[in-house]
Design goal:
The chain is mostly helical and 306 residues long. The chain is built from 15 helices and no strands. Helix 6 crosses helix 10 and helix 12 crosses helix 13. It starts with a helix and ends with a helix.
Length: 306
């Protein structure tokens, strides 16, 4: 939260009065039909995430009520606004409370989801980087960053990850065996995807979730005349960096508009329009998250009185 407020303060102090006025005008002239359409598409993502979760839970032998799955997902999105990735813990805790699913197993299924989500996101990153390689390369050179250095860091991280997996799978050290015993429920939940019968349905909903995110972002560009002409490959780049901003902060507070403005500036869109677009999409989606999260938190005990 402090980081987000700091970024907002930075934006406010670095933007000129003219840029701030242009942002205000952008909010006033925006076509909110596309904003509401993006919110409807976002609801598809919420629904699909909750529905996908049922496949992993059913594999573990738990027949949960869909409304509980959906509302715990909504609450987790709300909790993520306070501290990054804290929503996953609240999601598993709420499911334990209302559906009696062991916390470690529920958390394991959520961790598995995040791994699948990461792989799909990396697919988007690959598509974006390949299609916009020259633009990104020129930007890195302008900022005195070497693309080769980033590749080496990525390769080193991949090697460390592979070494960790091999040690975890084959090492017979006492500390590893003890950890495996302690985390057996978590591991069972994580492996549920590989072993489940409905893995293809699970993967379908995984792609549907991310497609809904991307389409939601794409639809919103038509809300402003200055962004309506943006090509789809540029949309993918904005979507990638916006997602990174959300992932590394508490819901993208402050960082989301800054990331969008930075990427859009590479394609000739002014900083104030980029920031305005970022705030438009972030504000609308955050209001939806707060509304659904609070309603779900209030309805969960009411619908589970028995």
């Amino acid at each position: 939260m402090i980081i987000g407020i700091g970024i907002i303060y930075y934006q406010y102090t670095t933007l000129t009065s003219k840029e701030l006025n242009n942002i205000k005008l952008s909010f006033l002239k925006a076509d909110y039909f596309y904003i509401f359409l993006s919110l409807i598409i976002s609801l598809v993502g919420y629904w699909s995430r909750a529905y996908r979760w049922k496949f992993a839970l059913q594999h573990l032998g738990y027949q949960t009520k869909f409304h509980n799955d959906f509302m715990t997902v909504c609450v987790s999105y709300l909790v993520n606004l306070t501290f990054p990735r804290s929503g996953e813990i609240s999601r598993a805790a709420l499911l334990k409370k209302y559906e009696k699913v062991p916390f470690d197993k529920a958390l394991g299924t959520v961790v598995s989801e995040r791994l699948v989500d990461l792989l799909i996101f990396l697919l988007f990153v690959t598509i974006g980087m390949v299609s916009q390689f020259h633009t990104i390369y020129d930007f890195l050179l302008e900022k005195n960053l070497k693309f080769e250095s980033l590749l080496w860091f990525s390769f080193a991280g991949l090697v460390l990850f592979v070494v960790f997996i091999l040690v975890w799978m084959y090492a017979e050290w006492k500390i590893i065996l003890k950890l495996k015993q302690k985390l057996s429920g978590l591991i069972e939940g994580m492996l549920s995807i590989v072993r489940m019968k409905n893995k293809w349905n699970y993967l379908f909903h995984s792609f549907l979730i991310w497609c809904s995110y991307l389409i939601m972002f794409y639809v919103t560009i038509f809300a402003l005349p200055e962004t309506a002409h943006i090509s789809f490959d540029v949309v993918i780049m904005g979507f990638i960096f916006g997602t990174l901003a959300v992932g590394f902060t508490n819901g993208g507070l402050g960082a989301y508009p800054l990331a969008i403005a930075m990427i859009f500036s590479l394609y000739g869109i002014s900083n104030d329009i980029g920031v305005a677009f970022g705030w438009l999409i972030w504000t609308s989606q955050t209001l939806l998250t707060i509304l659904l999260g609070l309603l779900s938190y209030l309805l969960l005990p009411v619908l589970n009185k028995k």
